[in-house]
Amino acid sequence: QDRLLPTALGNALRASEDSVGQRYGLQSVVIWPRLFHLLPDKVRSGMDDEVTQLDVSVRLTFTWTLAGVASAIVLAQNLPALMKHPTWILVVLAVFSLARLSYQSAVESAIAQGVDLEVAIDLYRARVIDAMRLHPTDSLDAERRVFRELCELFQDPESTQNLVFDPN
Q: 0.90 cut: is pTM over it?
């Protein structure tokens, strides 16, 4: 409950941040900047497309909302003209509907991005271990230990005196 955010978009992003990579003992927000550069070009390009879609949807949400508010203000200032042409209210409602659709698209993009992130970690996480020049692990428990230690190292470089990196 303490991790809930006030918006659906925030919660979709937070959910993937909290859950992706847990089964491997890693924190996705810590490992991802390193893993991203190790991904095949096709996978990296797909992830970039997901981020772009999310970004565009959020920008459209903001733009449509701002346009809706500005339109409503203009109509409110011209009530006599609005009474002659009440169909302008439909235009304002349409603009707010576009804002809502854009927001829903942003939420769906965030969910899709979380799924893609999870798949990338499932398939390519061992590349981080290889890139760090560590020995391959022979079990999931060993992998979890290595990733916990790597996340600790990446978060606090001063913590290196306690790290063992024993894959077995």
A: no
